Amino acid sequence: MGLMNEYIQKIKSGWKPKNFEDELLRLIKEYNKLRSSYLLVYSSAINSPIDQKIIMQEDYYIMHDLLKDKSIENLDVYLETPGGLGEVAEEIVKLLHNKSQNVSFVISGQAKSAGTIIALSGHEIFMTETGSLGPIDAQIRIGRYVFSAHDYIEWVNKKKRQARKSGKLNHFDAIMVAQITPGELSGVLHSLRYAEDLVIEWLPKYKFKNWNVTKDRQIPVTEKMKEKRAKEIATELTKHSRWRTHGRSLKIQDLLDLGLIINRVEDNPKMADIVYRIQAVTRFLFDMTPTFKIIATADGKIFRRAQQPQGFPGGLQIIQQQQQQQPDVVNIEHKCQKCGTINKFFFKLSENPLIDLEMKKLGIKQFPPDNKYSCKCGALHDLINLRKQIEANIIKNKPS
Fold this sequence. Notes:
The chain has 400 residues and is of the alpha/beta class. 45% of the residues lie in helices and 19% in strands. It is built from 14 helices and 16 strands.
């Protein structure tokens, strides 16, 4: 029986979210005993529509509080995140290394963008077969949205090319471009360089700390050799022409090919069992509750939760963050009554073209213009009533 099925059976036998919280703490303690370390779980609901799932300043404060007054010889971090703010990633790395002389990262899900940058600061990186890092890039906030710095620059350059070719921009693109100042563009470029600089600094300082001789020729390794290797790796990880997409998953072999030493979790079956269980338990907590981020140790835990969304009859559910002003987009989940599949869509309330970039990155499709879609099981659904509910809700709550 697989781990997911094992926990599904526990749910059928009466397990509630509290049981999964207790299970997570049990697994953390078991991990600490096995590895003679202190494990910090930092996990986000990757597919959640909640903006705050990314690495944010509040996460640094929570970690600081959980690790306060602790003397830690070996600190391990179970890391799963879609990325976030580079400046916060730097603060988190400094905090972790100030707390311990030996910091390792465990990757079983995704640690993308700024998550990859954080992982590359570890003295060791442990990965399961399902684990993945990604191309390094900073994420920046434009208005109420957070975007990949590379994707943002790419969008701007695309609009410039279109303008040179046609001599004009369409109305909505013109409005968006007019809102981008030279200072913002400079800031985006700085963010890209900033992410690369962090990797170049941290690899020699931490990951290559104990790299003393070359693997094949057994030649003594100098600081210049470490810096050269770090620059090569940083250059490759920021080379979007190689990876094609910011969301690309880089597995163990991809990273080995870049010259990084990665420890395979499966080489230690007991460790693998615990790590995969932690991954399964966090996923069940994300699915069963409004939790979108978990930060936990054996001595304490903080679960960040969103407000419970209101449901609609017939398996319809709109997920919308509470905002003081009308949102630009509504995220929608529609349950197929034939096969039970949850199909995700977004309904745009503004013409901001950057919304499409963000939703595409999350794998969420735009609400069908004709209100109809076919599920993967072949069932045809008409969402006209849902459209009417959304539009009625917009009119009802539209700011005066």
